[in-house]
Design a protein that fits this description.
Elements (H helix, E strand, L loop, with lengths): L6 E5 L4 H7 L1 H10 L4 E3 L7 H14 L2 E7 L15 H11 L3 E4 L10 H20 L3 E5 L7 E2 L2 E2 H8 L4 E5 H6 L4 H7 L4 E6 L1 E4 L4 H8 L4 H8 L2 E4 L8 H11 L3 E4 L9 H17 L9
Parallel strand pairs: 1-2, 1-12, 2-3, 3-4, 4-5, 5-8, 8-9, 9-12
Antiparallel strand pairs: 6-7, 10-11
């Protein structure tokens, strides 16, 4: 993989609230307008109406779709279930021209013990093979819990070992929050990485209101913040070395590197995404925002 073939794009989850308030079509127009034309779809229902909007945006705005999202749980949720809606997900991926589906997180019950985790891996492996037969790659997206150990092995290592047909979508913020170096982790899993999430890792200070309460003798708000000071941040507004991260992602084999920010703390998410794009372009990765979707 090279910078000429890998693409940078955006995870639609970042603007999920704007999709609800403004509608999908205006959101896709805004993303195209700030130069984010490569979309990973998540937490937006794949209804017939929405899929039609995605198709029009592809044809009229030149958008491409890096991946769709599914779960390995029954009963629905923010994304469709691969167990219950397999054909719908497969057919939607084909309609939108993507060859990728990603799992945003494993069922939490799979972390109960080693046996449960291995069973999830076996189920995911079977699903990855089924999708591969239909020409689609399945990837797994990590959070920080995957860096815990269960049964003597790191959870992410177990997933990779026990479900070798499933690719990885490494989220560098969650890697850092899990106590590992993003660049070394991308290097460690080189050859198994198909997707990467780009979001920064920031240690924030308490809000002004917390200090006002502290001056009045109430330490609770400051203490609460100190117990969890880590924030999601715009690319370039935190502590990660972004040139090294992007180069490591490309070297690891990633086809798509997607900007994502779970929370923007009062800032307009479109502004946050534009800031992230500007920083990456300033580092010399501007050409990766255009080009054919793979």
């Amino acid at each position: 993989m090279t910078a000429q073939t890998a693409r940078i794009g955006v995870q639609l989850m970042t603007v999920r609230e704007q999709v609800e308030s403004l509608g999908l079509a205006p959101v896709l127009e805004r993303l195209a307008g700030i130069g984010l034309a490569n979309i990973e779809v998540s937490q937006v229902p794949l209804t017939a109406e929405n899929v039609a909007v995605f198709e029009r945006a592809r044809d009229e705005l030149g958008l491409g779709y890096a991946a769709l999202s599914g779960t390995m749980e029954a009963g629905g949720g923010a994304n469709p279930s691969l167990l219950e809606d397999y054909e719908h997900l497969r057919d939607t991926a084909r309609r939108l021209g993507t060859e990728r589906i990603r799992i945003g997180m494993l069922p939490l019950a799979a972390l109960r013990d080693e046996q449960a985790l291995v069973q999830f891996c076996r189920d995911a492996e079977a699903m990855a093979r089924r999708l591969a037969d239909d020409g689609i790659r399945l990837s797994y997206h990590n959070h920080h819990l995957e860096f815990a150990h269960l049964g003597g092995r790191e959870v992410l290592e177990t997933i990779r070992t026990e479900a070798p047909a499933m690719w990885l979508e490494l989220d560098v913020h969650w890697v850092q929050r899990g106590g590992h170096d993003p660049v070394r982790t991308l290097q460690r899993f080189a050859g198994a990485v198909d997707l990467v999430h780009l979001k920064d890792f920031r240690v924030g200070l308490p809000a002004a209101e917390a200090f006002e309460a502290l001056a009045a003798g109430d330490r609770s708000a400051v203490q609460q913040h100190l117990n969890q000071p880590v924030q999601f941040a715009e690319v370039g507004q935190g502590t990660l070395d972004w040139a090294a991260v992007v180069y490591a992602g490309i070297a690891a084999g990633a086809a798509h590197l997607l900007i994502e920010q779970d929370a923007t703390y009062g800032r307009d998410p479109f502004e946050s995404l534009a800031m992230s794009r500007e920083h990456l372009a300033g580092l010399g990765f501007g050409e990766m925002f255009s080009g054919p979707s793979r």
